[in-house]
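Second opinion, please. Pick holes in both lines of this record:
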Amino acid sequence: MRIDGQCHCGFVTYEAEIDPEAVSICHCTDCQRLTGSPYRVTASVPREAVRLTGNPPKLYTKTAGNGRKRLQYFCPECGSPLFTTGTDEDAATWGIRWGSINQRAALSPKSQIWCRSALDWFGETAALPGVARD
């Protein structure tokens, strides 16, 4: 599936070819902290499937407790998270942050990881009262 996307302010833009089956949720505590939400949704793609079409993102490197490095790309202007990848053999795969994808409504998660860090109320949000807009 061909997608395009951008940060919130439009400073960083991109195009990519993705497999809609490769969309997943991560419940790890790093993703919770980086998003300020209970989980993160990501589309995994080969690095060569992503093409930047606008300004370059800024890079933050997070070193995990096990020593592995995760590269977090975000907009230097508005701070929107855009991509993630690793180093060495992990650099071959990039994660595109679901919220930055223009076609995100067509991309539902197919799997979950780090479920031991999932909050105990995850999955119960459908029972909460809501309004169409604020």
User: Anything to note?
Assistant: Residues 38 and 125 are 11 Å apart (CA to CA). The mean pLDDT is 92. The radius of gyration is 15 Å. The first helix runs from residue 29 to 35.
